[in-house]
Write a structure and sequence with these properties.
By secondary structure, this protein is mostly helical. It has helices spanning 2-20, 34-42, 45-50, 54-65, 76-97, 120-142, 155-162, 166-188, 201-227, 230-234, 239-252; strands at residues 102-104, 256-257. This is WAT1-related protein.
């Protein structure tokens, strides 16, 4: 799971570099999520990882609602989970709304990429998109575990119960995501010139998203769901914040602020 978080942050950093060079985020939707990529395009990888704090909280609350997690308010374990979920939500809001002082000046002429977004309104809009991305991801993360519900309303719950084969499930997950993404992406970006990806960081971003993001990452997440459950998988999300901040300063020349 640690390797997955590292690869996911690497994907965000590479993608931000590709967007700064003109890559359209509709092109990368073949290998990822539109809300997440659009959010990073409007902000930076550090905010993307900081907003991932919403994943453990939303996953926990969804698990409680769906009776996948037992909540006993008199139990120290349950109290710790509730407090942790509330703190993670508060942390995500602070990163988006609080404009703090500069901590590290990462500006470097060799590393700094031309930014497409500078307005604070776009920063908040990017945070809102990322929040939506992680909330949707938490819902999807819980879907395979809904097999214990009285109403068998999700195909995912039945499939993973009757056929717990992670590799094959990941293959069909990506295949049908590709099939659904094609018409939507072409409708959103009809200009064929936008689909010509040059052989530079933009091509690396697309390939990396497909192999490490939709391939390796989804497979390990599916395996973690099958073995430990949704809350365990979401626990590793906060580690990506420190990784993203370090990689953003080193590879993108981002300034590190206290808050945003």
């Amino acid at each position: 799971m640690l390797t997955v978080e590292l690869s996911n942050v690497g994907l965000n950093v590479i993608y931000k570099a590709a967007v700064s060079k003109g890559l359209n985020y509709h092109v990368t939707w073949f290998a990822g999520q539109l809300l997440g990529y659009a959010g990073i395009a409007y902000s930076n990888p550090t905010l993307g990882s900081a907003m991932s704090n919403l994943a453990p909280a939303s996953t926990f609350f969804l698990a409680v609602v769906c009776r996948l997690e037992k909540l006993k308010l008199r139990s120290l374990s349950s109290q710790a989970k509730v407090i942790g979920a509330l703190v993670s939500i508060a942390g995500a809001l602070v990163v988006v709304l609080y404009d703090g002082p500069l901590v590290i000046n990462g500006h470097d002429q060799k590393l700094t990429l031309p930014t497409t977004v500078g307005a604070r309104s776009n920063w908040i809009f990017g945070g809102a998109l990322l929040a939506g991305c992680y909330i949707v991801a938490s819902i999807c993360r819980n879907l395979p575990k809904f097999k214990d519900l009285k109403f068998k309303i999700t195909v995912a719950g039945i499939v993973i119960k009757e056929y717990p084969a992670e590799f094959i499930l990941v293959f069909f997950y990506n295949f049908f995501a590709f099939v659904l993404a094609v018409p939507v992406c072409f409708a959103s970006e009809p200009h064929l010139s936008s689909w010509a990806v040059p052989a530079d960081v933009r091509l690396i971003s697309v390939l990396y998203a497909g192999v490490m993001g939709s391939g390796f990452g989804v497979m390990i997440h599916t395996w973690g769901l099958h073995v430990k459950g949704p809350v365990y998988v979401a626990m590793f999300r906060p580690l990506s914040i420190a990784i993203a901040a370090i990689m953003g300063v080193i590879f993108l020349g981002d300034d590190l602020y206290l808050g945003r």
